[in-house]
Write a structure and sequence with these properties.
two-stranded antiparallel ribbon; elongated; alpha/beta; five-stranded mixed β-sheet; 2 domains; about 325 residues
């Protein structure tokens, strides 16, 4: 993803209202279950330590675009879910591997954090003396001590959704199996697949996009029809009130992704996209008319030249400078 597009979309999706809207759409079909105030920003940096050449341990740093922790009271107890959003302006043909790695790193990180917490607690108890250690808590089994993850420990679920900000259809693989050339059912039965959870405007109906409650609705609609003037005009008219009062960050995403030529003051908090598009259409018509007039004048000059009229007279007739007319006719000054 180009740097500017990456920065603009990441800043936009980080907004708690937009972020909640993404997962309310994907998980709950648009029902407002996840509230923005229930989300907490998390450090999206993940570090893996795979084995490198000659058994060396090589640090590899990976970055999620946006990740937030959701906390809500369910049946009298607090439950947590980690939600991650990956923004794509271009199709990523290894997205299943990319997202699978992020989720795996998340779980590995949780196991490591649990191990650190247990080691810290055991150290504290040891320093306080045997009597205190016997009074509080358990003694880990050999397996618990080895893994650092105790039998009663639980992972926090991690769900990753990819938001494709392109106007074309996503033709990349949406699962690990689609990236493989394996047909043996016995082999496949021994493997775990991984599916990409995708939001892509070109593959959504208008009714589905309308389930978004934030400005993501307008962003998705505009991108979907950005190359279809007739349908874009229809969408702008149908949703005129919301498009006339679009938050600037959403307008930034639309302009960065579609290059539609929308002009507005960077200091504005609200952008009238309908007016901006009307101005673009008027300018296009004006340029078209000018091009048409120029074409007619050039054709007239060529006809008059064939009739033997000199360039000075031709210039007077068509209303353009002599040098311009000579250029049309290929006559050197």
């Amino acid at each position: 993803m180009p740097l500017r597009a990456d920065t603009i979309t990441k800043d936009y999706v980080k907004d708690a209202g937009v972020f909640a809207d993404i997962f309310n759409y994907y998980i709950y079909g648009g029902r407002q279950v996840i509230l923005p105030e229930q989300l907490t920003e998390r450090d999206s940096t993940k570090i893996a330590l795979p084995y490198g050449a000659d058994g060396a341990v090589v640090p590899v740093q990976k970055f999620r675009d946006v990740q937030k922790l959701y906390a809500a009271m369910t049946d009298g107890k607090m439950e947590y879910v980690l939600y991650g959003a990956e923004n794509q302006a271009e199709i990523h043909y290894a997205m299943p591997v990319k997202n699978n790695l992020y989720d795996a790193l998340e779980y590995a990180g949780q196991v490591e954090e649990a191990a650190k917490s247990h080691r810290k607690e055991m150290k504290r108890k040891k320093e306080e003396g045997e009597e205190s250690a016997e009074e509080g808590g358990k003694t880990p089994s050999a397996g618990e001590f080895l893994s650092g993850f105790w039998v009663e420990d639980r992972l926090i679920p991690s769900i990753t959704v990819t938001i494709f900000f392109g106007s074309e259809e996503w033709d990349g693989p949406l699962s690990l199996f689609e990236m493989m050339d394996v047909s043996d059912p016995d082999v496949l039965a021994c493997m775990d697949n991984y599916h990409v959870r995708l939001i892509a405007p070109a593959q959504m109906t208008d009714e589905e996009i309308m389930k978004f409650q934030s400005s993501l609705r307008e962003v998705m609609l505009f991108i979907k029809y950005s190359k279809d003037k007739e349908n874009l005009s229809r969408v702008l008219v149908t949703n005129e009130k919301r498009f006339r009062e679009l938050e600037r960050r959403a307008a930034d995403v639309i302009e960065t992704i579609t290059n539609s030529g929308i002009k507005y003051d960077e200091s504005e908090e609200v952008v009238d996209v309908c007016q901006a598009i009307r101005e673009i259409r008027m300018e296009e018509r004006k340029i078209g008319e000018q091009d048409g007039e120029l074409k007619k004048a050039r054709e007239a000059a060529e006809n008059l030249h064939e009739m033997g009229l000199d360039t000075d007279k031709i210039a007077q007739v068509v209303g353009y400078a002599v040098e311009t007319v000579k250029g049309w006719l290929g006559i050197e000054s």
